[in-house]
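May I ask you to review the protein record following this short note?
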Amino acid sequence: MKNIKACKHCSFITEEENCPLCGNPTSREWQGYVVILDHTRSELANRMGINVNGKFALRVR
């Protein structure tokens, strides 16, 4: 099973120890996720401050 983690800063979901987007550490303790397919037209991405497409956690500890 994969060790899926989420960035503590930008909430990007990855398998790496550090986030590939911002370089901050990741955590295995996260809940829920949203998939952004087109960040330019997404109201949710705008509200969450997301400016790239991908999977993002809703809550990270």
About this structure: DSSP finds one helix and five strands in the chain. The radius of gyration is 11 Å.
